[in-house]
Amino acid sequence: QVQLVESGGGLVQAGGSLRLSCTASGSIFSIKAMAWYRQAPGKQRDLVAGIMANGRPIYVDSVKGRFTISRDGAKNTVYLQMDSLKPEDTAIYYCNADIMESDGSHYSDYWGQGTRVVVSS
Questions:
Q1: Partners of 79 in the beta sheet?
Q2: Can you give the pLDDT of all 121 residues of the chain as single tens digits?
Q3: What is the dihedral of CA 50, 20, 113, 103, to 10 degrees?
């Protein structure tokens, strides 16, 4: 059983910073990609940042220059450093990972439970 658990959300003022963490646990053979998505009330869940199989990061335009995604392969953990936060960043942030289990033969998507980020004006 593979599980993703996020942490690090909270309430901050505009201009502040938060660092989100997501750790994958269980019988994991390999992780091909990891990403962060967010969902605001009444809106769809959208990609915020991802770190690809080749290690290259990708970002949605609205967070470029403010957010940084990184990964610790030894810990099966992905981070999202969020600086210069804006009220429009308020959302539930979800971790996503493309994982092959140790007894499997293909990659599957896994989701965390989400961590709430609130940015006040």
A1: 21, 70
A2: 899 999 999 999 999 999 999 999 999 999 999 999 999 999 999 999 999 877 899 999 999 999 999 998 889 999 999 999 999 999 999 999 999 999 999 999 999 999 999 999 9
A3: 60
